[in-house]
Structure formats: structure tokens, C-alpha cells
Design brief:
The protein has helices at about 10-20, 40-50, 80-90, 100, 120-125, 130-145, 155-170, 200-205, 205-220, 225-235; strands at about 5-10, 30-35, 55-60, 95, 150, 175-180, 240-250, 265-270, 275-280. The chain is an alpha/beta fold. Helix 9 runs antiparallel to helix 10 (about 225-235).
């Protein structure tokens, strides 16, 4: 039977556990999550283990990144299953604070981000989101003091925001982005995929296929504007309500008009039924 990881739920318990780890001069990697762990999360854990001797996984469903109309109360919470999965991966420490520990009475400080956080992508539809993400991730970095923090590239704008924040605030954390883990049909793994009906699940990989088709058109010499318009139409015709389908500079997230303007990232967000999916690929 796999050894159960140490679980810390208070800051003193977290600090005691981290002190024991650092007494061995071990490098520490942090994998921040909101739980409901799937193979994508576990891939991040395995990549963290390749980079550092000890791995901390945080599980905290962060209320400050949800708007009132979003799914905070119904976001999947699967603690027992998550614990078993992390035990199988031989994770060293799980940081599982409650809301009052992260945001005690009187909490009044928030990290406000610009740069990639105001790229007119996710921030256009969720203007609250990156302030909540930056604040909680900043707290996690300060609390856990990792050498490395591992994030998935599926939330690409988030990855750019967190990377910029860690650099700008001199937090001493190397942020590493890991390629998106996908189902066999290309759908990006996400905790929210459980909300999809069987028919919606069948249609959902259209996002990935469309991005790949557009990338292929560009590599074959096609026009970017035409490829993007055709891609947006294909996504809408499949039954999605499209929020955005954009070609952006992969580093700055600035809009681009041609392949010559730098490395390109396609980013998409669309709703099918009641489930909002996001995805991206490099071109």
C-alpha cells in the first residue's frame, strides 16, 4: 500500500513539515491545484518529481477567482480520491488549507496584474479572474517557498500571468509550464469535463481539431486572417458558443497579424451546453 502523504491544513503545520524537508537540503517543487485531480494533474506531479527531490501539492478551491455566477459551490471536490492518487505518486506533502486560513477575517490585500493579465482574452470575460489567481498563487509561493512551481499550459494566459508575477515580485520561484495533457481524441483534460453530456463530450474535441487545422493551413502558406475566420466558423457550426478564437504572440499574448511577427499561440474559449472549455496550441 502506498504511503499516505503528510497533510497540512494550518500554516504552523505546513511550516513544520517544510522545515523537516529543508533540513535535508532538498529542493522543493510545488504543484498548485484545486483538486478533482486527473491525469493532467498527475503528469504535473511527475514532472515536478523530475525537477526536485520533494514535491508539495496544494489543494485549494480558491473562491476569489470565481465570479458570483460561476461554479464555485459546485466545483468538483474529490478529496479521498485525490489523496489516494497523490499517495500512489509518492507526493511528500499536501497543503490543504480552508478558506479562513487563506483569507482570514480582515484580509484586505490583493495582487493586481497588468501585462498578460489584460490581454483581452480570459480577462475580457472574467475580469475578476487573474486578480484572484495572482493573489492565491502569490500566497502559495510565499507559504511554501518552492524552488520550482509546475503549471499546465492548458491555462496558457494564467501561466504567463503567474510567470510574470513571480519575476516582477522577485519571489525566487522558477515557474515551469508543462504541455497540455489530452484525451486520446485530443480533448484537453480538465476537471470541468465531468460536466459534459455524452453528446457534448463527442463534440468537445472540435476545439483541438480546429486549432490543428488552422495551424496546418498556416504552415502550408495560408492566410492567417482567413484561417482564423474559417476556424471560428467551424467551432460555432459544431454547436459551441464561441467567446474567442485568437492568434497571439506566444510570449507577450499581443495580437499578431502574420507568421512573421513571432512565435504564435492559438487560444480558444467556448461554451457547449453549460460547460465552458478553454484550450490552446503553439503554431
Amino acid at each position: 500500500m502506498a504511503r499516505t502523504p503528510v497533510v497540512a491544513r494550518t500554516l504552523p503545520a505546513l511550516h513544520r513539515a517544510l522545515d523537516k524537508i529543508r533540513a535535508r537540503n532538498a529542493r522543493v517543487a510545488l504543484v498548485p491545484t484545486m483538486g478533482a485531480l486527473h491525469e493532467g494533474h498527475l503528469t504535473l506531479v511527475r514532472q515536478a518529481k523530475r525537477r526536485c527531490e520533494k514535491v508539495v501539492v496544494s489543494i485549494f478551491v480558491n473562491p476569489t477567482q470565481f465570479a458570483p455566477h460561476e461554479d464555485f459551490s459546485t466545483y468538483p471536490r474529490t478529496w479521498k480520491t485525490d489523496l489516494a492518487k497523490l499517495a500512489d505518486e509518492k507526493v511528500d506533502l499536501i497543503w490543504n488549507p480552508d478558506v479562513k486560513t487563506m483569507y482570514p477575517d480582515g484580509f484586505a490585500t490583493r495582487i493586481s496584474c497588468e501585462g498578460p493579465a489584460i490581454a483581452d482574452l480570459e480577462d475580457r470575460y472574467r475580469p475578476h479572474f487573474f486578480g484572484g489567481v495572482a493573489t492565491v498563487v502569490g500566497k502559495l509561493f510565499i507559504q511554501c517557498k518552492p524552488d520550482v512551481a509546475v503549471f499546465g499550459q492548458k491555462d496558457f494566459q494564467q501561466l504567463r500571468v503567474v510567470t510574470q508575477m513571480a519575476r516582477d515580485l522577485d519571489l525566487g520561484v522558477k515557474v515551469v509550464g508543462i504541455p497540455t495533457v489530452r484525451e486520446r481524441d485530443g480533448l484537453a483534460m480538465s476537471s470541468r469535463n465531468v460536466y459534459l453530456s455524452p453528446e457534448e463530450r463527442r463534440i468537445a474535441p472540435t476545439l483541438y481539431r480546429t486549432m490543428k487545422d488552422c495551424a496546418r493551413q498556416l504552415r502550408d502558406g495560408g492566410d492567417l486572417k482567413t484561417a482564423m475566420a474559417e476556424g471560428a466558423a467551424a467551432i460555432s457550426n459544431a454547436g459551441f458558443a464561441l467567446d474567442y478564437f485568437e492568434a497571439r504572440h506566444a510570449d507577450t499574448l499581443a495580437p499578431i497579424a502574420s507568421l512573421s511577427e513571432g512565435p504564435i499561440r492559438f487560444l480558444v474559449a467556448a461554451k457547449i451546453g453549460t460547460t465552458r472549455l478553454i484550450d490552446n496550441i503553439g503554431v
